[in-house]
Design a protein that fits this description.
Order of helices and strands: HHHEEHEHEHEEEHEHEEEH
Strand content: 15-25%
Pfam families: HTH_1, LysR_substrate
Protein name: LysR family transcriptional regulator
Oligomer: single chain
Structural class: alpha/beta
Number of strands: 11
Shape: elongated
Number of helices: 9
InterPro entries: LysR_HTH_N, LysR_subst-bd
Helix content: 40-55%
Keywords: DNA-binding, Transcription, Transcription regulation
Family: Belongs to the LysR transcriptional regulatory family.
Distance between the termini: 69 Å
Length: 319
């Protein structure tokens, strides 16, 4: 039995993504080309791998078994790449990193400079994506390293197929318009004001809901914004108050917003997540390992600069 490994990958994508259309998008092929690859694979193995009796294409039991072996083939190839790196002093190849804006700006950009100096043949590619879509990219192999954020009150992402490494704890701050007479000192003072809120599945959205529940009020979410730049612009314009992480305040101009003295707002946890290696050695991909090391070095430098930043008076953002 002679099986083309490229067709195995097509079968694996159809299985993981639940259909031909999504597999075609992931593989940058037409649905017709995917269907043809599946037909050729069925000829090679002499078995029906796809159930075409329903409107939605699914795999037969034999197809699911072979798709499982296709995943193992991918793992064996990854193992081979790891073994071959022993014969060269220079790591090379692409690595795909999924992350969100504040981490891209303040951690990944410095990390990439470090990485280019130490390992110039590594080719990092960053995709701005976060939340459930980012986790799906990692699971499906579209991302190699995922940087996540989550409110500290939530449990650490724990799945057998994923490895999570803590990077950074980013404290929240409550910011208010610059023309307020003085920053509030208690969350209860903000029960009746409009909020510039984050999406509820994001860390700052989780923090607002948590604080409101603890203090017994329903926040008036007048604006719902994902990115921190427009969030801070709305606060600066007097359109509401907001919870933002410290990283979001690093580039804010002096006096643009007031930072409150409210304590115990909490923090978001920033983690690096990778897929767990299920190969014989169990070791991580060497390219991914040096990328994560560069990210950790950049994070350590950021923490040092933040210590100086947080040492400034807290009633307004320093220049």
């Amino acid at each position: 039995m002679d099986i083309d490994p490229r067709r195995l990958r097509v079968l694996r994508e159809v299985h993981l993504r639940g259909g031909v259309m999504r597999a075609a998008e992931a593989l940058h092929l037409t649905p017709s080309a995917v269907s043809q690859q599946l037909v050729q694979l069925e000829r090679e193995v002499g078995l029906a791998l796809v159930d075409r009796s329903q409107r939605r294409v699914s795999l037969t039991p034999a197809g699911r078994v072979l798709a499982g072996y296709a995943e193992r083939v991918e793992e064996e190839l990854a193992e081979a790449r790891r073994e071959l790196t022993r014969f060269t002093e220079r790591l090379a190849g692409p690595v795909r990193i999924a992350a969100f804006p504040t981490v891209i700006q303040h951690i990944l950009v410095p990390a990439l400079r470090d990485l280019a100096a130490r390992h110039p043949r590594i080719e990092p590619a960053i995709h701005e994506v976060f939340g459930p879509p980012a986790l799906q990219e990692l699971r499906l192999g579209e991302a190699d390293v995922l940087i996540t954020e989550q409110d500290m009150s939530r449990p650490v992402l724990a799945q057998p197929s994923l490895a999570t490494r803590a990077l950074f704890v980013d404290e929240y701050r409550v910011v208010v318009p610059p023309d307020w007479p003085e920053p509030p000192r208690h969350v209860s003072e903000l029960a009746d004001v409009p909020w510039v809120a984050s999406e509820p599945h994001l860390a700052c959205g989780q923090a607002l809901d948590r604080l409101a529940g603890l203090h017994g009020f329903e926040p008036r979410k007048l604006h719902v914004i994902t990115d921190f730049a427009p969030t801070l612009a709305l606060v600066a314009a007097g359109r509401g108050v907001a919870i933002v992480p410290t990283l979001a305040l690093l580039d804010v101009r002096e006096g643009e917003v007031l930072v409150s003295d409210i304590r115990d707002v909490g923090a978001r946890r920033i983690d690096a997540v990778t897929r767990v290696s299920r190969t014989r050695s169990g070791e991580p991909d060497p390219v991914q390992a040096v990328v994560i090391a560069a990210i950790e070095r950049a994070t350590a430098e950021l923490e040092s600069s933040l210590s100086a930043h947080l040492g400034q008076p807290r009633d307004e953002v320093p220049g």
